[in-house]
C-alpha cells in the first residue's frame, strides 16, 4: 500500500511458498503503509511449486492485490531431496479456509528473471528481498546475475536460528529444505538479516491474539482466523504449542519497522554436511558487532573490526509486531473476495 507518511515506502520483493504464515506475510506486505510490494515470486517448499504458486495467487485475490507481477521459480532444491511439511500446512499447502480462484495472472518468466528485472529497473540499493521459503531462487539469482547482487538493498529472510531447530534439533525448515542455496545466500556480499526461530517463536498466534485480529471484523481478518485455526491445530498436534508462530510475517514486519527486532551483526555459516546438523545456521557470537546497541552479545569495541554483512535477530518487540499486523489488516478492510 502507498505510504501515507512523508518518507517513501520501502520497496520489497516477497519470495515465498504459501504456506499459512507466508499468506499472512503477503497480507502484511500489502497492507503496511511503509512497504511497497513490487513483485511476488514463489519457490517449492511448504508444498509443490504448482500448489504454492496457485496459493500465492489466491491470497493475492484475498488481499486485493491486482497490479504487480507474480512468477514461479524453483521446483526443487539445488542439491538435496525435496522436503514437504504436509503435517504442518496440509495437502494443499494452505489447508483450512476456502480459497478463491486466483485472478492475478502468472508471468511467463521464471521467478529468478523477474527478480533480476525488478532489481535492474529500480535504483541501486532501493529494493529489499524478503524470502520466506527456501533460498533456492535467491541463490540462483546470485549465481545467474552476479552483477546485480550489489544493487540489492538487502535480504531479510525468515529461516534458521541460533539456539534451536524445528525440523531437526539443529535445523529450521527453510534452511534444511535447501542448505546449499542458503550457504550461497549467506556467503554473498549483500546485507542479510536472519529472522530465525529464536524470535519467531516469540510471536505465537495464541487465542487472545486471534480475538484481537477477528475483532477487526473484515472478510480478510476472518480468512486469517481460518488459516490460523488449521495452522494452530498442526502446531498443537506436532509440537504442543499454544499457538502457531508467525514466522514469515515477522520478517516482513522487520522491514516495515526495523525497531521490532534487536539484531546483532555476526558471521553466519550454514552446515551443509553433518550427521545431525545439516541445515543448521551457526552464528559466530565470538565476533559480533552491534552498531546501535552496545549491549549486543559478545560485542567488540575493536575499531579495526569490520562489521560482518550478516545479522541475526536476537530479540523481538512482540507488542509492536501485533500492532503492525492489526493496523495492516484494518487498512486492507473488506475485499469481498
Ligand atoms: C518456516 O517453514 C515454513 O513451514 C513456514 O512457512 C516458515 O517459512 C518456519 O520454519
Ligand atoms: Ca514460508
From TrEMBL:
<dbReference type="InterPro" id="IPR036452">
    <property type="entry name" value="Ribo_hydro-like"/>
</dbReference>
<dbReference type="InterPro" id="IPR015910">
    <property type="entry name" value="I/U_nuclsd_hydro_CS"/>
</dbReference>
<protein>
    <submittedName>
        <fullName>Ribonucleoside hydrolase 1</fullName>
    </submittedName>
</protein>
<dbReference type="InterPro" id="IPR001910">
    <property type="entry name" value="Inosine/uridine_hydrolase_dom"/>
</dbReference>
<dbReference type="GO" id="GO:0006152">
    <property type="term" value="P:purine nucleoside catabolic process"/>
</dbReference>
<dbReference type="GO" id="GO:0008477">
    <property type="term" value="F:purine nucleosidase activity"/>
</dbReference>
<dbReference type="Pfam" id="PF01156">
    <property type="entry name" value="IU_nuc_hydro"/>
</dbReference>
<keyword id="KW-0378">Hydrolase</keyword>
<dbReference type="GO" id="GO:0005829">
    <property type="term" value="C:cytosol"/>
</dbReference>
<dbReference type="InterPro" id="IPR023186">
    <property type="entry name" value="IUNH"/>
</dbReference>
<feature type="domain" description="Inosine/uridine-preferring nucleoside hydrolase">
    <location>
        <begin position="12"/>
        <end position="323"/>
    </location>
</feature>
<dbReference type="GO" id="GO:0045437">
    <property type="term" value="F:uridine nucleosidase activity"/>
</dbReference>
<keyword id="KW-0326">Glycosidase</keyword>
